[in-house]
Amino acid sequence: MASPDQDLAPVLDKDGVRLTVDDALATVTLTNPAKRNAQSPAMWRALAEAGRALPGSVRVVVLRGEGKSFSAGLDRQMFTPEGIPGEPTFTDIARRDDAGLDATIAEYQEGFTWWRRNDIVSIAAVQGHAIGAGFQLALACDLRVVADDVQFAMRETSLGIVPDLTGTHPLVGLVGYARALEICATGRFVHAEEAVSSGLANLAVPVEQLDGAVRDLAAALLAAPRDAVVETKALLRGAGGRTYDEQRAAERQAQARRLRDLAGVGE
Q1: Contacts of 151 (CB under 8 A, 6+ apart)
Q2: Contact (Cβ atoms closer than 8 angstroms) between residue 125 and residue 97
């Protein structure tokens, strides 16, 4: 993919992650195309730092990967006995007590958790491979626009581990339990047509049109009043955990806030 943010001075540029900000639009780019944007703990820390570095003006965040693949998953060096220099090996992590193991995985997950904050809408622009951790990073976003060459796959189970980078909850929410189980347990590829029909992706376009389609979607999101989008997103995010009547009440409360705000009337 071409880089739509290449003329902007980066707010953050480290460990395979670049953050640029253009007023209300931020772009997070995975910048290691030579390794198909393979992921490492350093990248996860940089992703978490990018979330903390977002200015308050940002309303929409686009996540993209340079090169032919969005992200091919974990850096395979993590699976070797020597691991990645400066990082604990899988064996080192496995030898920690329950609290230490839990804390390590929780730290890794932080790079995946901020994309659904109510004050932003996040869009993953996905081309080529989005495998394992790459699939989960795309799932971390609110919306997904995919190229027609996309290949989603959840390969963790095939490697004897489980998806643990926050991807299981959104996957089940998008495609349902049965299909999510089948996708994870078989490790098979999900291509563009199925991604759209199953709800994994909002839109599929030819790869050369991906940047343009994402820009159009971002512009449409930015055209709506910010506070209304924030309230609507909060309503929708909470809907799954509420009963029908609880959701009706939440709608009334949110609308009351909006009407008072628009009318300049204090509560």
Answers
A1: 128, 129, 130, 131, 189, 190, 191
A2: no
Query: Which amino acid makes up residue 195?
Result: A
The distance in angstroms from the start CA to the end CA of the chain is 48
CA distances from 190 to 65, 139, 150, 195 (A): 18, 13, 8, 6
Torsion angle, alpha carbons of 82, 83, 88, 90, to 10? -100
Q: Is 33 helix (H, G, I), strand (E, B) or coil?
A: helix
Task: Give me 27's structure tokens.
Answer: 């772009």
Report the alpha-carbon distance of residue 199 to residue 229 in Å, rounded. Answer: 21
Signed CA dihedral, 189, 120, 7, 10: sign only: negative
Residue 256, pLDDT score: 96
User: Which portions of the chain are predicted below pLDDT 70?
Assistant: 1-6, 267
User: Which of 43, 56, 57 lies closest to 13, judged by CA?
Assistant: 43
What element of type H or E holds 213? helix 210-223
Instruction: Please give the backbone phi and psi of residue 142, each rounded to the nearest 5 degrees, phi first.
Output: -70, -40
11-21 pLDDT, tens per residue? 999 999 999 99
Give the residue carrying structure tokens 């029908």: 244
* pTM of the predicted protein model: 0.94
**In angstroms, rounded to a whole number, what is the distance separating the alpha carbons of residues 166 and 173?**
12
Residues whose CB falls within 8 Å of the CB of residue 174, separated by 6 or more in sequence, listed in order: 139, 198, 199, 200
Query: Whats the size of the chain, residue-wise?
Result: 267
As a whole number of angstroms, the distance between CA 107 and CA 110 comes to: 5
